[in-house]
């Protein structure tokens, strides 16, 4: 089953807010519905947002205001604007051309994820690898297979995966809710880890490689990804463990010179002071909620894309 697709004139996607308890497919017919799904993270992950953006242009039916709103639904993952722009570039040729462009982008994403899986698995040395990861970078973050978790899947298929240590990924628990769900379905050994335990487990020698995805890679190689990635990069450097970013070429943004130029989404206090609807801090507590952080390029061992390995 694909995370997101175009079926009988509408976008179908898995509502990721309900996982792991229930797997419900939403059918979206309007840009308003799609923008809402993107903002509440029913669909999320940079490659999936790229496909959502492209398919959303078909729903927008040429309305520039709707297209602009879709493009700006979330700011950090460059893939959303990229997908919108790719499809919108065909508007002059009519709806069929826009749809064809969006479907090609979907198919390219599937091929890119498969290629990244192979390339990433080829890059890593060792037969029984213990991998640490954060957030969800699997099929749920793309159309199929995923990026960093796509490498994990390929390692598992090749019999080279010992274990995945998945960080919970507060505040929205993409690691606890989504990555564990995917790993269980692929039959891959895994354990869930509190975010704050990540750097210590690296120091204790329990990890052979850290694999993460990316929301935007600046022209100089600085990489924005889910909050917690930077702490893992620091821990990996100190422990001498490879820190590998796995992302499609579409996540590289030549228009953003350095990580300092990347807009980091702040999702507001509510997500921090509550956990799945239950308040965990005194009433009235304010909070900071950067959804992403930036790992400077010198902490990155390699960036694996569908076509190359970059060593920033
Ligand atoms: O806020 P999210 O869940 O959309 O954040 C997703 C991530 O940070 C992923 O690591 C990134 O988009 C790469 S997904 C292959």
From TrEMBL:
PANTHER family tied to this protein: METHYLTHIORIBOSE-1-PHOSPHATE ISOMERASE
Family: Belongs to the EIF-2B alpha/beta/delta subunits family. MtnA subfamily.
Recorded metabolic or biological pathway in which this protein acts: Amino-acid biosynthesis; L-methionine biosynthesis via salvage pathway; L-methionine from S-methyl-5-thio-alpha-D-ribose 1-phosphate: step 1/6
The organism's taxonomic lineage, starting at the top: Bacteria, Bacillati, Actinomycetota, Actinomycetes, Streptosporangiales
SUPFAM superfamilies on file: NagB/RpiA/CoA transferase-like
Active-site feature positions: 215 (proton donor)
EC category: isomerase
EC number, as in UniProt: 5.3.1.23
Keyword annotations of the record: Amino-acid biosynthesis, Isomerase, Methionine biosynthesis
Protein's name in the database: Methylthioribose-1-phosphate isomerase
A Pfam family that the UniProt record links to this protein: IF-2B
Residues reported in the UniProt entry to bind substrate: 44-46, 74, 174, 225-226
Function: Catalyzes the interconversion of methylthioribose-1-phosphate (MTR-1-P) into methylthioribulose-1-phosphate (MTRu-1-P).
Catalytic reactions of this protein: 5-(methylsulfanyl)-alpha-D-ribose 1-phosphate = 5-(methylsulfanyl)-D-ribulose 1-phosphate
Site (Transition state stabilizer): 135
Annotated GO MF terms: S-methyl-5-thioribose-1-phosphate isomerase activity
Chain segments annotated as transmembrane: none
Organism of provenance: Nonomuraea coxensis DSM 45129
């Amino acid at each position: 089953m694909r995370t997101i697709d175009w079926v009988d004139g509408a976008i179908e996607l898995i509502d990721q807010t309900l996982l792991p308890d229930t797997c419900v497919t939403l059918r979206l017919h309007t840009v308003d519905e799609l923008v809402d799904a993107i903002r509440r993270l029913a669909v999320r992950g940079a490659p999936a947002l790229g496909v959502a953006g492209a398919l959303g242009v078909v729903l927008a039916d040429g309305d520039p205001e709707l297209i602009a709103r879709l493009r700006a639904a979330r700011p950090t993952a460059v893939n959303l604007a990229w997908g919108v722009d790719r499809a919108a570039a065909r508007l002059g040729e009519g709806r069929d051309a826009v749809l064809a462009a969006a479907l090609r982008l979907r198919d390219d994403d599937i091929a890119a994820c498969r290629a990244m899986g192979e390339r990433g698995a080829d890059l890593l040395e060792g037969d029984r690898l213990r991998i640490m990861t954060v957030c969800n970078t699997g099929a749920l973050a793309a159309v199929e297979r995923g990026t960093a978790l796509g490498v994990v899947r390929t390692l598992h298929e090749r019999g080279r995966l010992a274990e995945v240590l998945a960080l919970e990924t507060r505040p929205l628990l993409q690691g606890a809710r989504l990555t564990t769900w995917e790993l269980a379905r692929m039959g891959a050994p895994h354990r869930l880890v509190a975010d704050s335990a990540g750097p210590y487990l690296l120091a204790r020698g329990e990890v052979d490689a850290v694999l993460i995805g990316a929301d935007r890679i600046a022209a100089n190689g600085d990489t924005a990804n889910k909050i917690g990635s930077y702490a893992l990069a620091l821990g990996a450097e100190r422990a001498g463990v490879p820190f590998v970013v796995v992302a499609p070429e579409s996540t590289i943004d030549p228009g953003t010179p350095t990580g300092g130029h990347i807009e980091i989404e702040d999702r507001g206090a509510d997500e921090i002071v509550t956990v799945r609807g239950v308040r965990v801090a005194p009433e009235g507590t304010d909070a900071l909620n950067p959804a992403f952080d930036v790992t400077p390029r010198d902490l990155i061992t390699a960036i694996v894309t569908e076509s190359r390995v970059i060593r920033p």
